[in-house]
Fold each of these.
Amino acid sequence: MVAQTRAGNSAPKRLAFNEKIVGKGLATDALLKKLKALHTELAELDQELVDVNSLSAVRTQLVNTSILLHKDRGVKAYAACCLADILRLYAPDAPYTHTELRDIFQFFFRQLSTGLRGAEASYYNEYFHLLESLSTVKSVVLVCDLPHAEELMVDIFRDFFGLVRRDLAKKIEIFIADILVALIDECQALPSEVLETIMAQFMANDAQPAYRLAVQVCNATADKLQRHVCQYFTDIIVAHSHESDSESNFEEIRKAHELVKQLSRSCPSLLHSVIPQLEEELRVEEVQVRLIATQALGEMFSEKGGAELVKKYPTTWNVWLMRKNDKTAAVRLKLVESAKGLLVNLHDHRETVDELMRLKLLDPDEKVRAAVCKVYSQLDYETVLHYVSEDQLRSIAGRGMDKKNSVRVEALNSLGKLYSTAYPEIENNDSAAIRHFSWIPNEILHISSSTQEARLAAEQVIADFVFPLPSSSSASTSKNVDVNEVAWTDRLLNTMGYLDDRGVNAVLLLSGLKGSRPSPYELYLQSCVQHNGGVIDEDEDTVKQRLNNVIRHISRQFGDPQKAAEDLHAFARANENRSYKLLKTCLDTQTDLKGFVKASNEFLRRIESSSESILGTMTVFLRRATLRIVNQSSIPTLIKRVQRADSKHAQTLLTYISKHCPALYKPHTSELTKAIADEKNARLVEVGMQALAAVSQSDEALAVNDKRTLERVMRYVLGSNARVAKFAARILVASKEHDDLCAEAVESIARKLSTAEPDLLVAHTAVLAQFARLAPDAFERKSDVLMAFLVKKLLMVPSPADPDEMDSDADWVEDDDVQPRLRARILALKVCRNRCLAHASTDTALEVATPVLKMLSTLLDHAGSYSADATDDPKVKSRMRLQAAISLLHLSVVDKFATAINTNFISLAITVQDPCYNVRMEFLMKLFPLLTARKLPPRYNLIPFLTVHDPEADVKNRAISYVTHASRNISATAKVDWFEIIFIRLLHLLAHHPDFSTAHENLQEMAKYIDFYLDLIASSDNVSLLYHLAMKAKTVRDGQSHTYSENLYAMSELTQELIKARAQARSWSLQSYPGKVKLPSDILRALPNPEAATKILKTVYLPEETSAWLSESSKTQKPVGTSKEKRREPREPKDSKSPPKRKASRHRANGSTKRAKTARWHSDQSESEEEPSSDDSEQDDREDTSTKLSSEHGDGSSGQESDEEEANETKGEQNRKPSRKAGTRAKRKISKQVKKKGNHTRKS
């Protein structure tokens, strides 16, 4: 047992200590003193120079049980140090038996585990010495040679990992690590309990000392532990995968994989054999195992060291990527959820990850698609800018139109968050940020105006990220809200700078500026106050009915109408006056931005604290009801920005405010007055004049009456700028001295009109259009002179085409290219129209209107000229017939005029089939606002159904959108009057259509009109009425001629067959209609006698070929699973969609396709020109509500019908390129006219 060799040339040094430390009667203090002396001397001895024979006495006494089991801690501490020194001096041999060594090492670790507790603990230096000796001398490896060494090793590892948790010195951690590493390196077989003890440390907090110790040990012994670690995981998976139905077993497997992830972060070299094992798990049939393995590997690849892992295990990486096609959606979901780290850390594999994400955006499972979108919302600005392509972001934007709401929400939130983080860089004109992110608001706005389903999520994102309220976070807790109104307004303008025309229109609609006042939301608040929580003193039924009506209307705009209605009722029942006051402040157009932010935050806080369940609904309500994008605080900044060269969007906003919400100008009239004085800035003058005109007309108290200002306005009235002159005329009309001022202006214009230069002629005519409507007394003083000039010298003068013009076939001229002479002619038509409207309530109304109506009808009959053989320029004719049709629409608002126009209604209606695309679209866009406000007779609702054959998809789609929204948002009773009873008028119109004939091919085309109507209107509830009306058409005669009667009978038979086939395909019950229907007497007459009725009923007016075709069609038509009540709303067509190809056999009068379209709305349009609604149902609903509820809450209309239409009609909602001409007017515009066949009547 004694060392065999000793080195060194000097004589060995002997131990001087020769006292006994074992014996009876030895006091503890004395023993402690002796052991201390012994320890001191042993510590100083050099292993190479000591005479180990001199150590024999003490080495034997030190292992005596009286020492090892002594009750004094000091005795045992010094004894342990002495024993450690003995082992050091005797190394590499141990002077003890195996049993003694086992006792010694157990004694060592017992002392350390119980005594080593920190630098201030008793005998800390002795314990430190003991630990240092074991670490440096490596005497601890002797444990590996002892019998039952496994048990002792287990205790050592357990004790040391427990010891290190005491937050000891860093050096002690190093000593312990050295000891454990030495044990692992020397042991023949590593006990499983030891490995479990080590692995357990990785499941703890990675900031713990035990975790750090385990990391050190594992990294130092990785080569030896690899095999054991692999076996460890294999044992766990095998042991817990037999009972695969047990969740507890999967939990154990899950924990094992969590451990693998921890090891991957800190000790990746241990996993050399484990990673291939995980790869195999990806291929197993058991879903839970695949799921766990996919998640684990995904998180490992996503770590900072993931690139190295991919490089080291490329096969595993590829097999993991293949889980993108896993048959189980949950596995694909786990794959996708790992993608954030992949995008951040695996830059070399960007293309692979992008392709994976692009593919999963189209995954059949909505959770996977939503998860892909969510990943991008978690990325920081720099990562997205440099490592995510714009194409990928646009693919995410495409998911904003997903059929599943969860996907739409995640996609739009991702885009919104990314834009919000990038906006500061965009504002600083960072070209990379602009290129990568500036398009995002445009896409979100397009989505917001596309479908009802997508709108709610898009609006939320726009409110939260695109146009957020300023300082909303601090405002919620601070009484003194400090908001930056200029920065808020500039953000709107900066964002609009990157929008297309459709995006700008969407912003304007979302702004809440458009719509009559009081709005439906204001009516709701009024109803809540009157309802008084259910305690109503007077007219209880009326008050409750009003509240129910407005709630029913508002709730239709929510994703879940039933939930919204319940929440709105709950808010009304709560009857909190403070909430009412706050909501009123938010709804008030005069509330500034600071007041709005404060009131809205307090309102939502109160809702959250009192009724959290309705918070979501009231948040949407508040967002839609208030001016949170533009309000009166925006006006000063917008006026300043108009003065800049890049002021397009500031001008757009101010023009829109002037048209739809001039009340915002009330606090700023002095600024507007200053603006019109800056004559050097023509743009600012124009905007200021329009704003002043609007605010003067909206509130008499704000009318301009300052003498100096009125003198300036008079100069503008008589000036050559048509738009400025028009607005100036309105300001004069609103002033107190309007009679004298207007008369003076009319006198001056009358003198100069005949000699005026073209531009001045346009301006004077624009002013006359205003005076004719708003100041009729002044106009009539010179009406003879003025009307004679306008009609004879302007309107009736031919306008031949320019022989030198290159594009002689063009049938449309852009607004900017309209010649002054044509502009003046268009305005002259408006003068005539406005003069009629001004006299509408007088006894001379028809006397004034009759020649005008005749002139307008003539223009329609002769394609824009006053005679059939006129050789006018086609571009002039298209503009003239469009203005004639629009004028007839506005005149039809007046009942007596509508009756007179009725004889020419068919000519007016088929304007929607004009050869020129621009005429068709402009006509529709003028028609829809009048129909939505129910200003026109119900028969005008037939016109949208005539678009079925239009070669341009957007014309037809706009018609579909209007009909869908309008029919959905009115009561059942109103729908009967406005859309169902008029069905027989549709049959009559088609019977009179210039394209009608009883040829089979033609009747097939006519059937498409009927099917189009039935697609949009027919349901199981009204099919009996529609069939009844179709049958009734054969019980009357046409009011005009026998030929048209036969046409009507053919349409009746055709329609009956189509309705029967539809009812059969949809399993609708086609019962006899129980009610009585009064047929329109203005177009139909009763039959002369019963014999005639019997003859007509027995006669078949359809050709045999058509009857056979209908019979065959009904047999081949398959039943459908859903009724039309559940029909989805049509989507907005894309701007660049190409026109559909025509069939050779198609015969219709819908004119040509368009060439190209430009802006749908321009800031320099006339005020009356309605912006396209972007198929925005909410806007339609707002206007519709004002009509339905105005009788209960006061008149919500603007108070003007025709003078909302501005003089500058040439500026349309859409500036479009000239379209291709497809023929002449109405009766001659079919590409291939079907030859009339003979009499197809067959006797039964």
Amino acid sequence: MLKLKSGRDLSSGLTAQALGLEDIARFGINGGLSVLAFDPVQSLLAAGTDTGRVYVFGQPGVEVEFDLCPGKPILHMRIIKSIYLVTVDGNNAVTVLSLDTKDVLSVFTPNSPVTAMESDPALDWLFLGLENGLTVVYDVDRGTKAPYRIGNLQKTELPRAPMSSVLFLALHPRSFQVILIGYENCAVVYSMVDENTLLVLQYEVPPGAPGGDLHPSQHTRSRFPRLTTGAWHPNGHHIVTAYEDGSFVFWDAREGVLLQARTVEDTEVNIPRKSYISTSDIADSPREPIYRIAWCCTTNPEDTSLLIAGGQPGSLPLKGITYMEFGPTPLVQITSYQAQGDHYSQPRRQRIYPVPAGADPVDFIMIPRTSPYYAGNHDPVALVVVLSSGELYSIEYPTGAALEVASMFPPSLCWIQPRMSAFSVASVRREQWIGMMASKKKQPDTMLTGGAPARSRLRKFDTRNIVLTGHSDGWVRLWDASHGELEDSQILDLSIADALERSVDVRVSAISFAGQMGEMSIACETGELVYFKFGLNRPVSPEERQRRLEAKDIVEQNGRPPVIRHISGLIDPQMKEGFLPVFVLSPQRGPITAVKNSDIGFLAVGYQFGTLAVVELRSMSLIYLEDVNGLGIELSNRKFPLRPGDRSSTQSQGVQLEIPLSIEFSIMALEGDGFSSIVLSVGTNLGRLLSFRIIPVRGGTHSVQFVGAVQLKGKVIATIPFDADYGVSAAASPTILQKLPQGIVISGALIAVTPDEARVIRPPKLKMTSKSFDDKILVAGLSLLRQGDTLVLVCLTESGFIRIYAVPSLKEITSLSAQKFHDVRYAPRSIVSLNGDVLVGIGKNESALLNVWGKAMAVKTTGKDGEKISDSLYDVMKKLPPRPAISTIQWMSGTKYITADDFDLLSMYALIIRFAAILIRHCVVGGPHRPKSKRMMEEERARREQQRLAATQMIHTSSQSSSSRSSTYFGRKSNNDFAGMADGANERGERLGFMQNQFSKLEDASSEYVKSLSDFVEDQKRTAATSYFKAKFLG
């Protein structure tokens, strides 16, 4: 129902055709993270989510999204040969994506669920471990399943053991024809060249040995702990396997000798002991299984360390990744097994990389500098941890310090490091924002440098919409919502943890940023508010600095800190310019429910206990601190009979406190006034709109005066001031404030919006227009194209529509469907900006940037068919480095050297013939009928085209001479024709005989060459071995 009293139509220049929804960009990620993959060659990071999305991130501005399996998680992911992105989703579909074309190349569904996946950066082959215990091979380049497969080796080697799925796969770091396959009861080292089992590693804990069990009652029997994961030493001489009881075992990779069995705090746990007494009170708590283990190395593959996720006692409050640095590995040729085991029992350094409280590490990946080999663990600079909550946590390696997320990662990933807890948008002039970015101190190079952003078109707005995200660790990050348009897309960040001088209980609950003044107020979930001001950090004298340090520790007579505690003494002296902490507001009135930092030097805060606080920022003084419960209602008519500050009887009396929910500052003339004032409007949870006037008083300060209230239906979710004469926003600004002494009169009004209705009010009580809604309103805000006749009210409804209403009549102009973006759980987080941008919350970690005018320039340009041009990911000029090969000692001991091309053939006969230069296609992994790759087919097409062009040229050249020969040719006699045919037949016979003789000679030469080659190799091995041992033992 619509009621209208008066008011000039400020939307007269609009029709429904002028409005349309423009989908501009996405921020954040959809769902929680489930798996990560990193390619150091292309410098790209791929992130899979529990909702079936895959995001690939590169340098600033590069982000490509793939929606592979809606509603199902991405379980496994690899980047192969720096161009193929392979995923396994919850539907058991193996999907191969091209990072070059960004297309799906092939999809393969095995007949059994995939439980493990392994690949090598230099190979086309993807090894898939299945639930039935088989290991199958998929040809990623050809998009077909290879005929080669490995049976259930545990069933073969341990016939009495229960059936087991494949738990993990690990290719040998130097000789990829050898693979480590993990089952529940054993790990098997298998040679794909010889097609036989080299080692079976089964870990038994005898009676009396502690193993990984913490409770002594488990030590009296023999146990075979369940295997969970494993890894190769970078040199391939040792293997580590990890188990469900939290222990991990080091093995010799050639003989299968157990070198050391240990846990994160104990060694030789496989050796029986007379008595085992736990050194702590954690004996009743089982140890965590080891989820993930990574064997890392520096630029020297012999200098190693181990990173372990899990394996800690379950009752320990500190969760994290265990780091063990072992240093250079002893030479296995001259070191006894006992000494090798001692090496792993005495790490040089050991520590825990802690992760945020409330979540456990379930997986992690290393970020190597340049090389993708050694399972991605070669010379890493950082590790990125996936937490059980779906969040990320980044750690510098090897120091263990938390990475500076804002400078190292794209904005979308910053939303979940850790998960966003507060969200806000503010308008900042473009020049001012660039100046703020220029003040940011030089940061280390971003972690991701790959790809190239698509060409963007600038949106012609003088003000930028700055998105602010608050996080549970106390960090607040600022970045441009249209960051793809700017040359500099860095993120500004600041933390309240230092200002509050603690690292716990710093979760950000609300943010308000006054863009024109560079002032920010950050609310903490404990009810404290920290105020920052952007500016220069001017040097002060030692005496002044000491005075500031003492001021932050001042307490009142009752022993409590003051309501406003000055903290400028905590400013980092090294900071030249930035957000400087000024004070902490803490009136002890419960959690903060609303905060508004105005552009005219006032701050208003609402609290859970019904209190409203107003601070004058110029003098940093508290000018108002009162309860709004029943304010303006006569005592006899109050429905809320509580005295100010009395909250003890709320439960017994069933009384609902009146809580401020929406706060706005404006400058306008109140009803009946002939002058303009600073007006503070407060909407409450009980549907009342409270109006206050802020007036100057003697001494240069101000006071707050209550002037009236209006009752509405439902809680007030938005209070929106506008100028009824000029059709622009009437929100308080420095420009209008400077004109107040001139006596200007602003004919202002206020739109108060609840879920059920909207009212246009001339404060404090004059009702101009009202409208009831059948579809509940979640978010509302003003928007305009130009001053005077394009002002509209934009409302996001519960059903997923964006409804546009004229101002002040509140007549509906049009309704735009946003249902494909809509999720009622997250839509209340949405924000409407004055330029028509609507930042819609579409997931717990994702928002969509829309524009209601339909003319906004998209962040990415569109192609011929109107589709957005996505960013480029693959750089053809970046080549894979050579793969590490086996060492000389390994070759001397009989290990076969296999190249990537040899692995495709994978037979000793093919290797011998290759040395003899005889091309024989005899494939084992790929099979004899392996189809040609796309590259081969393209080369063949190009070769055929070149041959066709050459033939055409030859025909054209000989056409003239053929005409001159034609008369002679037709003048020949027929018997000469038959004679020519006979001569041709004889000539072909002679040629065939010659070819047969040549093949016979080649066969004999090949046999002789192979025999001489074998003799030469054996002779060189004997000579090299003799020289090596003479040098070592005889000097």
Amino acid sequence: MEIGQVVGEKAVSVQITVLRGHNLKGRTESFLSFVRAELNGVVLGDSPKVDAVVDEAVDYNFTCSFECSDAAHNLDDLAHKPVILTVTEILPKEKKQKEEKTIVLGQAVVDLLPLLHGQSRFTASTVLYPAPGSPGETAALDGSKPVLDVSVSVPKPLLSATQLSESNLLKVTVETAYSVPDVWNQAAAPASGYAAALQVPLTAEKEQILMFSNGMLKMGGEREPVPRPKKWPQDAMLASGAQHIPGTNIEEQSVDMEDGDMTTAEDKEFRVEAEINRKRVSWDTERRCFLDAGGAAWLTRRIVESRLWPIEIMKVAQTGAAKGAKAGKEKGEDETLSFHGVAYVDLAPLLYPGATCVRGAYKLYPFYESELMLKTKRNYSVLRESMRPPVTQGKARVSSVGSCKAAPSKIFEKGGKDTKESPRKISVSQAGPQGKVAPDENVIEVEPQINTEGQMYADSKSYIVIEIALDKPLVPKRPPEELAKRVMELIPPRPPLPRRPAGAERAVQEFQAQVVSVAAQVLDQYQQLFGAAFEPSAWLTDPNTQEQRKTHLLGELNYSGKYFAFKEQLKYSVVRIVREKMLRTEAFTDVEQLQAFLSQLYVFLVDEMHKALNKTLSVDDLENQPQPQLECSQLKHFAREAQLNQDYQLATKYYQEQLARDRNDPSHWFDYGCFYMLRGDYQKAEQCFHQAVSMNQAHLSSLLMCGILAEMDGRYEDAETFFEGATCVNPSSVVAWTLFGVFYQAQDNSIQAEMAFLEACKQQRAGLALNPVDDGDTQTELDTQAENMMPEEEAEEDSADDSIEGEDVESSIKRCQSGAGVKEVEGSTLAVEPKPTRTASLTSPSKPCTIYMETVEFLLQSNALQMAQRALAQELLCPEGGLSSSYHLALAQLHTLRGEYGSAETSLSAALRDSYENPDVWALWGHLHFLRGESRDAQKCYERTLDFVADASDTHPIYLRLGSIYLKEGQFEKAKATYLRACKSSPSCLTWLGLGIACYRLGEMTEAEDALTEANTLNNSNAEVWGYLALVCLQMGRKLEAEQSYKYTLKLDLQNEPLLQEINEMQKHVGFGNPCF
């Protein structure tokens, strides 16, 4: 579609009606005035002369029109040229005066942009800005602004629905150029102007030069005010206020959110100084361009071909225009085109999904055509083209630089020859190797000299602030609703399953239900016989009467057969209780056992009957059911501990028990999926993550893992849906955006990857701005938090080791049970998560954590090793990253999880060179030695780790493995102290077991029994715990308990042969403990 082509390819009449004016001020109380309407330098008409009275409305009812067509007043003109309404007062004639004298009261502008948005009629109340010297200039101080009511209409919309959806509106705003060369001076003669220009496509065949030539040189001393209004690209405004576009302002924006070249810390400091003290040239002008479907597509292709877009700037001697026109063309251009510079604006962000704006500060460079060709694939200057006289006209075009009004008429047709040089528009097919040689040769010919004046921009560190915006994104972004629907299609949401009782619990509930049913029938029978007794006035308290009624009721039930029916009704539920609850399926051979069982059954049934009747007949609240002894957080801790010891069967048990507690918690499914990721069973892992998403469609971690596994399986479309859905679920997630970028990078989609990485950096900076942490104050802040949260624990940790060694085990158990020194997690009294550490400032004191290292941390915790390796590769390429201590530590963790111990050792050696006092590095090195069986070296690394002022990120495996080493070497006092610390920070069955073993070897039988009892409470299926309990009972002479402990030791199949042999020898020594004796 051509620029001016409208619906039906015919001219459309646009009517402008000035209805009335308000608060108009003239030189007298009553004055005569009229309104003149102009558009694009063409007078549309004058209204009749109307008498006006101050402070009263003036009805003009003036209508004029113009034709919107390709010949004149096309759609692009409507986009950036307003209708100018000038109100003029006719002064009274004096004696001997032949002609009327007039004075301009003010000007108003009407923006026609709503017509390009599909509206066929709109009204506006536009402010009438007073002209210089008019009466309204002084009257405006009282606060009542003059206003004109205007109506604009067309017989039908200028754009059809299809054209409206496919077209776009490009807005280019040139704000201010800062730190311009010091040689620029306002008092210099001759007077100079300052111009900026760029070329944009309008249609698929035509491009247009946008000229901004109303730059104003300002001295330094103060910052430009914000917000400040944007200006129209027209100069012919009598009223200064009319130059501002209604409803548009230049707003203040954080430098961190910009897209330009000046965003580093050094650039920020320079910009603060330059924007206050240095010279600047201000335009503050917005030029709007209407792009049809072809123009928008052509703009997209040009950005793909070359993401850098040149914006040229120059200084123009205003008195040299005429001279340049009379002199030779080449000579005139060289004399006028001074201080020729260029800024390269990266428009690739406009190809990000949903992106509509690029704004930033861009450095100014001296203009060289060779550099222009290399960066932008253009071989000519748009400023020179705008100043060159047209082929069809003999008059010079240099004057167009001084006026924005004439500049847009320079239009280039794609593939045609606008001048006698080579074609300026190079298509994708023409930009081959042969098409590039000729422009390069031309550049060498026309650039024999250095651009000395342009070099001043680089010497002064000049930069220009530019904004390029679109009404609609070039690449549409899928809305969150569509993404959510797509995720629902891939993983349908499942309603939470109702908790249904099974086994013994279900048998008891059925019995209680039958009791309630029988009770209701008995009450009905009682009411039929003695209905009056239920009335309060007839209530009988005589025991004899009550006994008589009871006998009568029982007789009636026996006579009617209901009593037998009640017994049959209860019989089936009682049988189920015997089988499911009492676990009796065989007949009794001993009468005494039968009687004892019947007594036990009778007591149980009576208790359950009372519970059922109390629920039915009593309104009192029942006592709360006892909570499970272990919380889900503890089960998760035990499962990870089992993973650490490579006891995957036990870890599976804990994860399944966690799911049995609450199958509707997506985090439980996520933990189970991460466990399968560690085992390499990706199919089951994906099933777990899908189950988590089906429970909660907004579970971020599971969505990311679904995307990772989908990419690993080659389902790239599904992976993109999951990653994009994760960014919509939590737009501030650094990990989600980073993984999105890594995914796009693997797909060779560099623009989308760049968008995702930039967004991740922005979100990380925003998060740091909300929670700033100074490296020097990190230690103090975390110490204060620890003192506020765990005062007792902090005091004890800072005490000497001998105080820990002498601590009583029983007091330690009581403290852990009471919650002292333990952090509460979701209502649990026992903490299982490692406490916050103070290692962050030690890991990389000179460099902040990058988005890739933050993502690597999540991936390593989730056991997504392939994606973690790719993220680490990005860390190497990141300017803020590189071979840091945190990088080497993460790489060593990756190698350790893969079992590549040699590579892990190499990475740890490099990490120690960068940060020798990092406790996490020493801890991982200790784990590496431990896994290799090098106990002595592991012990040294663990002891060094615990000696540091700062704790490692996870001390639990350190305590476990160091304690086990001490036990093997017979250092029981050190083992006891180590396990005491472990029991205090993160208690588990293994920590209490280790403490019990150490106490037993030291001869502290009471403390050993207490510790082993705690271990048995946390896990009653550990055969080693039962074995040491048997030893303790044998030592203390408790025969029955020793035999019972030994029986469970054998039943649970103890694999520790030395321990089993020690138990047998002790049994022979004391003479009891083995039922086989």
